[in-house]
Amino acid sequence: METVTPEPDPGKSSPPLDDSKNETILVQNDGALNDSTEAELTKISLMRALVESRDPSSKEVDDLMLRRFLRARDLDVDKASTMFLKYLKWKHSFVPNGSISPSEISEDLAQEKMYVQGVDKKGRPITVAFAAKHFQNKNGLDAFKRYVVFALEKLCSRMPAGEEKFLAIADIKGWGYANSDIRGYLGSLTILQDYHPERLGKLFIVHAPYMFMKVWKLIYPFIDDNTKKKIVFVENKKLKSTLLEEIDESQLPEIYGGQLALVPIQDS
């Protein structure tokens, strides 16, 4: 496989409640946190006590969610708690009803730029986003951000019990400056990194034209180190073979030589 990592230059837990009421609730039995280290289990308890003392609504959140925030901050309880409390404040303000209705994001849904289908070899749901179908939302940045939240809710709802991540393919074929939306890209990045940490398992960027790299250089400094490690630029000649390392052919979208037709995310 020839891939290029992007560089700037070119125990038991409390009752479960996940990122939104539309997400699949992860049933936490004795084995739910089996892949946690002793340090993680200890720090989950410390973090829970801290955040519950500052925001009582934290009691509704499950241990898996707290663990994601801890892992995003290298198990630093104070930093993870600050990050989590910021998330709660944002969620109560930006998504007051707990989820985004399709009627709120009709303009972005009409572009049919995001699809889902199948799971990878680890059981993570697969999403494909077509950058050339995206145009700046006429209703402003917040309208597009609501679309991003809706899409993440849909992806999380497709996760089987015990799975917390998804795999994404960003297809840049046909992208031009008319599709460029740096504010939208950065807004999406904030929602993913700050409010849905440890949800992205891997991101393949395919069919990236040269001029896209100019925009990528502007975005790259805002990507945190944990996220950077999950991003792979794929050469066109190695596209199918690279994807097959993570995805069985039976689960690979037809457009990449697999067997599954893509489904618009709103229909998933």
From TrEMBL:
Signal sequence, renumbered to the chain: none
Region feature Disordered, mapped onto this chain = 1-23
Show the coiled coil region(s).
none
Q: Which superkingdom is the protein from?
A: Eukaryota
Domain CRAL-TRIO: from-to ranges:
102-264
SMART domains registered for this protein in UniProt: CRAL_TRIO_N, SEC14
Q: What is this protein called?
A: CRAL-TRIO domain-containing protein
